[in-house]
Design a protein that fits this description.
The complex is a heterodimer of chains A (965) and B (435). With 965 residues, chain A is α+β, with helices and mostly antiparallel strands. Chain A contains 39 helices and 15 strands. In chain B, the strands form five sheets. In chain B, strands 11-13-9-8-23-21-16-19-18 form a nine-stranded mixed beta sheet, with no helix packed on it. A five-stranded antiparallel beta sheet of chain B has the order 2-1-5-4-3. In chain B, a hairpin with a 5-residue loop joins β14 and β15.
């Protein structure tokens, strides 16, 4: 630094004689006055020196506009340098002196006729830069000539001039027909002229989004591709960007363009490379995936992208922002290049942060060990922002790569041990997300987290910790004390923390009602009476009313299962991603926003879309189109963001917007709130909660994942009886009996149907195999059920792909609902079915396992269970023996849970395990069971109690079927 | 397209502005200054800054920020590449690119900028075209011009401007025809404490200095072209020929240019030519620490490792060091805690070492930071990737040129993560019962 400064001083002193810095020295007399005299000097040399002084003053922002007439006087000269200098001056000041500027017009017009093409070009170029209406009028004629000049240098300069003129006076350009001339230049013989014409047209088109300026057709594309090979690097950028707007007619054209663009990937200019990547990424979309060339192209894309990362940091930054998009669209391109994204210690912070982001996107089971080792390293660096992001990245790894979760958690715990304040807070925030993703796996670390309670001062971390305490209140002995400690400064907390605290305490109350009544009163009154925040107040009131009218409903709402969070967190929404891929290399791609969101003056920018893949079969063979095209039908559900009412009630307010499994009917975020206000809330506020089964439904049925994630809370005096011990483990899927032949071919003129019933994700399905054993084609299938015990009915038509040819066999899945007409059958689970086809109508009957009617929320509360058990008369109890079952009680419980038979409690008496279980049928009938399992004895005894004892036999059969398979 | 350019020096003054369209007030740079203030280090200023009506895209070179102002959707890489080209041109013209040099040549700078962009569109950025349009200042020419009143602006249309080989002018004449190629490779590697390589990549370039008469057509072939699978070429290289035959065929620009740059990243190809043995210890409760570092060569094919420079950022708790270099000199800056050791050449018989003690702040706990060691060095006459030029042939001209090829390996940054952080015992996630 010192050396540099010295050098600078030296230069200053030295420079005063020999160099241009002498132009900056001023005399006392008044600079302008002196310059004026010099400009009017007779000596050419003196004049030139004076103009140089004027230019020098101009460059540093001094106002030398007063010298305008004197400088313009110097314009008529045959000295090119002097001419150029005067032009420079004119461009800067003509606007402020429009009347004076007219003086220059004559010289301009004359210069446009000069035999030297350099002077012709210079004149037309400078005229275009003078933004004065009077001058532009005079510009039209010379410009028209120059656009058709014999010298390509003049033509290419004139092409740019049209764009300048358009900027000043668009109407004039259109009236004079310059746009058409410009379009003709796309077919010019000189590639440089083509490139400039394309550039000019692109710029004009930006302000005319709907004009057909760049009407690309196969012929003009061919011309552009030819010019692409021969023009300068800048011209290549313009041409490539223009090509990217073209939509090829078919995959063959697409491939041939790709082939001609690929060599650009080896260009030294990174902007050329990125523009070529854009064209390829877009046109690739049209290529069939099984094409060899598709694979070749994918391989060719990786090296140039990697090379961009060894360029200067500014280039790296832009490249990384774009790679971020590319990795989301086509992760396969860079999946083996993880290491190039490792952070170097001398990277600027903006590069480091981007690299981290991409590392997470590329993290997979194969490379996770390496990534974690790196991230752990980063978490000990100096830069706070970077460290925070690194810690967050560890959490994202855990969520993305399930196998790594355990290592991530232990890494985070190590980091918490460092006691570095911001590291601890960041770690707690991400651990909360990990809890959400993997319930009942890592809660053992809660104790460690609680130790750091006092050091949390950031709202996000405090809120995360409160969420954890509330969510796991039943496992934390002093949860009430912990939450109470937060309550003291309630009004000083940020809204985020207040809301969280409110929800957490309500959760705590629902889990441990006896000890925490006072606490919940306190928080409700703080929220509703002492707060000005409407969100907080409203939420407080809702809880209050819920709790006071119907605690069971409150429980259903507050302790509802939360949708899982997935690694898709903070992925760019697919339609936006598609649009951004079309804008690779632009500002839009740097900001990850569509151009319409921020580009000023772009009146109605057209939304670009990736082209659809070619080929006739739109659905089957191209999974990619399905995944992108399917988006509009089933957008990933977005958890309502903070402040959203429903989100709040489900206490999701802490999570970043995440996507979840089951798609809701509408994609927008308002859906939850609308729905709630439409149905749920009215009934809620009306106090009509108890009898309203719509309640649960309007909150969106909890996804059918992991029942049993609920661990037994400890309460009342039942703890000795109800002791489930540790976690139950993950349940297996519901039992599906093997297919049996329902309708033999002999009985149905060649149609054979075999099938079974299954319950998948809460939907009852009839899964059938239809075989055509006749000699002719079948069609026109339809199905109907007779009335049956549980009102089963087809939820949709029978979809059989036609033509259904002889000897063909197809799988058909028919979703069922239970809203059909009811009639008691004998046996209870008998179902009569009629199937019609083009040949005849056939009848058959089959029996379904009653277990498929067991619903997901069939887990009874233990107190309710005890009460119900007592309440049901003993006459209704039936006992059965299940023989030859070799499972222990835990395995049995697990297995049953898969079929929605929930174990509520387990008791061990004299080596005999007693499992207390409940299940609920679709029509709301509860069945309670006591399963006795004696170690070493393969025979189980089961007692069933139900208000409708008729079902017992079928339930027992289901038990047997589930346990033995 | 590019609207305006502002040049800002390290102290935050705008010392030059150039507008290609209408004038944009320099107050737009206030947004840049804000970002500059927020950045902890000068190089941490984000390269793209949005303002309400414009976007500022900047690069930092030679302690000068080149801030381009754009108004519409323009590819940022295009702007950054252009700014780099401006820097290169200044350096080419004035030898250095400093505030002083730019101010000294402000008129030439202005003429150049005007020639390089027209209405924001690049016009002439090739050095040989620019040099025909605007002659670079030399002391001799300045004096001659002053005396004779002649000018340094070319009167003729540059010949290369529109030809199929825009990078070469016609009518080049030399009495000595020479072509030199320098193969320069930089290793960039991260090595962990145990000495195993985490990442290693080679960034290679072939820089050429070609002074040949007329329109020579050159071909350059390699012994092992398979090494080059990730390359960027100068526009003069015929890509088809390379694809088909792995031969570089080109009509070279006149003078200095970068023929190609390449990137070798597969681990097995990258051997690190030096090794470091290091040991740094702090005893708990003591205010002293031991420092021990030894360097040695490996896999250098008998070539000497020269100009070795080791630097390390020591933990903040270190007050001072008392070290003994077996050769070279070392400095420790107690303010920045930067230890630099200028080793010089490594003698394989007597390995250089740096040993001694460090004093720590009294009562401070064991430092838990994570210092790194950076090593820089040069090896002449060797390209570490093993790349070798097979032959250079010239067609199209009759004379016999003098040809020369030079190899060199440099360490860009090799850094060793040298962990003090005790590797904490693996946490076992036993399912403790929290009841």
């Amino acid at each position: 630094m010192q050396e540099w400064a010295n050098q600078l001083c030296e230069n200053r002193q030295f420079g005063s004689k020999m160099t241009d810095s002498k132009y900056f020295t001023t005399t006392k007399k008044g600079e302008i006055f002196e310059l004026k005299a010099e400009l009017n000097s007779d000596k050419k040399e003196k004049k030139k020196e004076a103009v140089k002084k004027v230019i020098a003053s101009m460059t540093v922002g001094k106002d030398v506009s007063a010298l305008f007439p004197d400088v313009v006087n110097c314009m008529q000269t045959d000295n090119l340098e002097l001419k150029k200098l005067v032009y420079l001056y004119l461009m800067n000041y003509a606007k402020s002196q429009p009347d004076m500027a007219i003086m220059a017009v004559n010289t301009f017009v004359k210069d446009c006729e000069d035999p030297n093409p350099l002077i012709r070009a210079l004149a037309v170029r400078t005229m275009g830069c003078i933004r004065v209406d009077k001058i532009t009028e005079y510009l039209c004629e010379p410009l028209r000539k120059c656009l058709k000049d014999e010298d390509p240098y003049v033509r290419k300069t004139a092409a740019v001039c049209v764009a300048k003129l358009h900027d000043i006076n668009a109407q004039l350009v259109e009236d004079q027909g310059f746009l058409d001339t410009l379009k003709d230049l796309i077919s010019d013989s000189n590639p440089m002229v083509v490139a400039n014409a394309v550039a000019a047209l692109s710029e004009i088109a930006e302000s005319h989004p709907n004009s057909n300026l760049l009407d690309l057709n196969p012929q003009s594309i061919n011309k552009l591709l030819t010019a692409l090979n021969e023009c300068t690097e800048w011209g290549q950028i313009f041409i490539l960007d223009c090509l990217a707007n073209y939509t090829p007619r078919d995959d063959r054209e697409s491939q041939s363009i790709c082939e001609r663009v690929t060599p650009r990937l080896s260009h030294a200019n990174s902007a050329v490379v990125l523009s070529a990547v854009k064209v390829l990424m877009k046109f690739m979309e049209m290529l069939p995936k099984d094409l060899d060339y598709y694979g070749t192209l994918l391989k060719k894309l990786a090296p140039p992208l990697v090379t961009l990362l060894s360029a200067e940091p500014e280039l790296q930054y832009v490249a990384l922002r774009n790679i971020n998009l590319i990795v989301q669209k086509r992760p396969e391109i860079l999946k083996h290049e993880m290491k190039v994204f490792f952070v170097k210690y001398n990277d600027p912070i903006y590069v480091k942060l981007e690299k981290l982001d991409i590392m997470i996107r590329l993290a997979s089971q194969a490379n996770i060990a390496q990534v974690l080792a790196e991230l752990k390293e980063y978490a000990t660096e100096v830069d706070v922002d970077f460290v925070r992001k690194a810690v967050r990245a560890i959490g994202r790894c855990a969520i993305k790569v399930e196998q790594s979760a355990e290592r991530c958690v232990s890494t985070l715990l190590d980091l918490i041990q460092t006691k570095v304040n911001y590291v601890v807070q960041e770690a707690i925030v991400v651990i909360k997300d990990i809890f959400r993703k993997y319930p009942n796996k890592y809660e053992s670390v809660i104790a460690t987290l609680c130790e750091n309670l006092d050091s949390l001062d950031e709202p996000e971390a405090r809120a995360a910790m409160i969420w954890i305490v509330g969510e796991y209140a039943e496992r934390i002995d002093n949860a009430d004390e912990l939450l109470e400690s937060f309550l003291e400064g309630f009004h000083d907390e940020s809204t985020q923390v207040q809301l969280q605290l409110l929800t957490a305490i309500v959760k705590l109350f629902l889990k441990k009602p006896t000890e925490t009544q006072e606490l919940v009163q306190q928080v409700l009154s703080l929220a509703t009476q002492d707060s000005d925040n409407p969100d907080l107040r409203d939420r407080g009131y809702i809880y209050w009313r819920l709790l006071s009218t119907d605690p069971v409903a409150a429980k259903e709402v507050v302790l509802a299962e939360k949708p899982l969070i997935s690694e898709e967190t903070d992925l760019i929404e697919p339609t936006l991603l598609e649009e951004l891929i079309c804008h690779i290399g632009t500002l839009a791609s740097v900001y990850h926003k569509p151009p319409s969101a921020f580009v000023e003056g772009s009146r109605g920018v057209q939304h670009k879309r990736l082209p659809a893949r070619a080929g006739s079969g739109e659905s089957a063979e191209s999974p990619d189109t399905v995944s992108t095209g399917g988006v509009s039908e089933a957008p990933p559900a977005v958890i309502p963001s903070q402040g959203d009412l429903l989100g709040d009630l489900l206490n999701l307010d802490l999570t970043p917007p995440t996507t979840t499994g089951p798609p809701p009917p509408t994609s927008s975020m308002q859906m939850g709130a609308m729905d709630l206000l439409g149905g749920g809330l009215d009934s809620l506020l009306g106090g009509d909660i108890g009898g309203s089964p719509a309640m649960g439904a309007s909150f969106g049925a909890p996804p059918a994942v992991m029942p049993g994630s609920f661990n037994a809370p400890v309460s009342g005096g039942l703890s000795d009886l109800f002791d489930l011990g540790g976690g139950v483990g993950m349940p297996m899927g519901a039992y599906v009996p093997p297919k049996t032949v329902w309708l033999p071919a002999m009985k149905a003129k060649g149609l054979e149907i075999s099938g079974t019933f299954a319950r998948r994700s809460g939907v009852v399905q009839m899964e059938m195999t239809l075989t055509n054993k006749a000699m002719s084609v079948m069609g026109d299938f339809a199905i109907q059920f007779n009335r049956n015990s549980f009102g089963l009915a087809p939820a949709g038509p029978l979809q059989v792909l036609t033509p259904f040819t002889p000897n063909q066999s197809i799988e058909v899945t028919l979703p069922l609902n239970t809203v059909g007409p009811v009639m008691k059958m004998e046996p209870l689970n008998n179902l009569q079915v009629a199937v019609k086809n083009n040949i005849d109508v056939f009848y058959f009957s089959c029996q379904y396992p009653i277990s498929m009617l067991f619903v997901e929320d069939g887990k009874m509360e233990r107190q309710v269970f005890l009460a119900t058990w007592k309440d049901i008369p003993n006459d209704n109890e039936s006992q059965f023996q299940i023989k030859d079952c070799h499972l222990n009680s835990d395995a049995a419980s697990n297995k049953l849970q898969g079929s929605n038979i929930f174990t509520i409690a387990k008791r061990t008496v004299d080596g005999q395990d007693m499992l207390y279980q409940s299940m609920k049928l679709t029509n709301g009938i509860w069945i309670l069971a006591e399963l006795k399992v004696q170690a070493g004895n393969p025979n189980y005894t089961i007692s069933l109690k139900c208000r409708a004892p008729e079902v017992a036999q079928s339930v027992f059969q289901s038990y047997e079927a589930v346990l033995k398979n | 397209m590019i609207h305006s350019l502002f040049l800002v020096n390290a102290s935050g003054d705008i010392f030059l502005e150039k507008h290609w369209k209408s004038v944009v007030s320099r107050s737009v740079c206030d947004y840049f200054f804000e970002a500059q203030e927020r950045a902890t280090e000068p190089e941490n200023v984000p390269p793209v800054i949005p303002t309400p009506h414009h976007y500022l895209i900047s690069v930092l070179r030679h302690r000068i920020y080149f801030v381009a102002v754009i108004q519409s959707e323009v590819p940022p890489l295009f702007v950054i590449e252009f700014l780099h080209r401006v820097v290169d041109t200044f350096q080419d013209y004035f030898g250095v690119c400093t505030e002083a040099a730019i101010k000294d040549n402000v008129v030439v700078v202005y003429e150049l900028l005007e020639e390089m962009l027209d209405n924001g569109f690049p016009l002439a950025t090739e050095s040989n075209i620019l040099k025909e349009l605007i002659k670079p200042p030399t002391i001799l020419r300045t004096m001659v011009n002053t005396i004779t009143g002649s000018t340094n602006v070319g009167e003729q249309l540059p010949t290369g401007q529109l030809s199929v080989v825009p990078w070469r002018r016609t009518g080049v004449k030399y009495t000595n025809n020479e072509a030199y190629f320098d193969v320069v490779e930089e290793i960039d590697a991260i090595i962990d404490k145990s000495g195993s390589t985490i990442t290693a990549e080679i960034q290679g370039v072939i820089d050429a200095c070609v002074k040949l008469t007329g329109m020579p057509d050159l071909t350059l072939s390699f012994m092992n072209p398979r090494l080059l699978d990730d390359v960027s070429f100068h526009p003069c290289v015929r890509f088809k020929r390379w694809e088909a035959e792995r031969i570089l065929s080109f009509i070279p620009p006149d003078g200095n240019f970068r023929l190609l740059s390449y990137h070798v990243s597969s681990q097995n190809l990258v051997a690190i030519p030096v090794y470091v043995k290091h040991n740094i210890t702090f005893r708990e409760g003591s205010s002293q620490g031991r420092f021990d570092l030894t360097l040695g060569p490996k896999q250098t094919m008998g070539k000497a490792v020269e100009s070795v420079l080791v630097s390390s950022q020591l933990p903040r708790g270190v007050l001072n060091t008392n070290l003994n270099p077996s050769q070279g000199t070392y400095t420790f800056d107690p303010v920045t805690k930067l230890l630099t050791w200028d080793v010089g050449k490594i003698n394989p018989q007597k390995l250089p070492s740096l040993k001694g003690s460090m004093s720590l702040q009294a009562g401070a706990s064991k430092p838990d930071e994570n210092p790194t060691i950076n090593i820089q060095f040069k090896i002449q006459q060797m390209a570490i990737s093993g790349l070798k030029v097979n032959r250079l042939d010239m067609y199209g001209e009759k004379y016999k040129p003098f040809k020369g090829i030079k190899y060199m390996t440099k360490a860009g940054f090799i850094y060793i993560n040298w962990r003090l952080l005790c590797s904490s015992s693996e946490w076992t996630l036993a399912h403790k019962n929290l009841y």
